[in-house]
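Training component of the fellowship. As part of building independent skills, the fellow (R.M.) carried out the full modelling exercise for a liganded target. The chosen ligand was zinc ion. The inputs are recorded below so that the supervisory panel can assess the work.
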Amino acid sequence: MASRDPVADLRRIAFLLERANEATYRVKAFRSAAATVAALDGQELATRAAAGTLAELAGIGDVTARCVTESLAGEEPVYLRRLLATEGTDLEGAAGKLREALRGDCHAHSDWSDGGSPIEEMALAAVELGHEYLVLTDHSPRLTVANGLTPARLRRQLDHVARLNDALPEGFRILTGIEVDILEDGALDQEDELLGRLDVVVGSVHSKLRDESPRMTKRMLAAIANPHLDILGHMTGRKVAAAGEGDKGHRAGRTRPPSTFDLDKVIAACLEHGKAIEVNCRPDRLDPPKRMLTVAVEAGCLFSIDTDAHAPGQLDWLRFGCERAALCGVPAERVVNTWTIGQLLGWTASHGEIPDA
Ligand SMILES: [Zn+2]
Ligand SMILES: [Zn+2]
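Fellow's submitted model of the complex:
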């Protein structure tokens, strides 16, 4: 039997584990094994597999060694086969159509801030998913717990992304971006000049989430009116227990109620300034809640269905957002990431100037 590519098999397993929201250490085992195997020459790999000494290498354990051995023997690793057997079913009807219409993702993190993988890994996973673009939106300076990027680091990242784009396949592009903190006074946590250079700006509230409604409303309105902001990220900041976590999540304090603000005013501001409301796909966020999403749909808002992925496999979480968006009647043509790169960038650039009064 012809041998398979053990690196591809290990990476596929890592992707499926991430998508299933499995513990990081399990994913890491497969990603580091893939890196170790990729760095090894073919002869040594074959010799070690035959002698059963793969697990002596740093980064490879018994489980990953077995996968590599099976792969080299031309068999689909048992571990991979089991994961594929438990994969979710296809999206149905309207949700499926919406998912098919999506051309990219406008909210994703790399290991430059609090993501788990390098930008290139994220980009390659996006290519495999058939995306035309991935907007890289690492955190801004004040979010130190998430290793937010200072202006200097963001400038370095922009250079790095430009180089990566030269090497990536035709028909795919990493778009530059940021998930910028909406500060307590509604200002955005990054230099104006930099915000102006980025392709897409997602603005999110990450602090003082319990502010009383008038204060929170004012803060959000100021951010939405800022010409640099394109997409309002996870608008209520709520955390829900991820599927399967149930009561355990609540007890462990991983949940958080939605923040309170004047929804009508926020929606009116998004309409006035042509900004999009994010449908955040993370199973532990699912933000905004359905009743708010429905109000925004009826008001005629723009949306962006984004994964907020912190690992490559999480880029496939678009399905969760599509299910909710379809349930609430979000029309595909009002979802900015169903648009072509040209349309998307035309839209974000049009906020660059403060419109004439
Ligand atoms: Zn966020
Ligand atoms: Zn994020």
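The panel noted the following from the submitted structure. Confidence is low (pLDDT under 50) at residues 353-357. Residues 107, 109, 179, 308 surround zinc ion (ligand 2) (CB under 6 Å).
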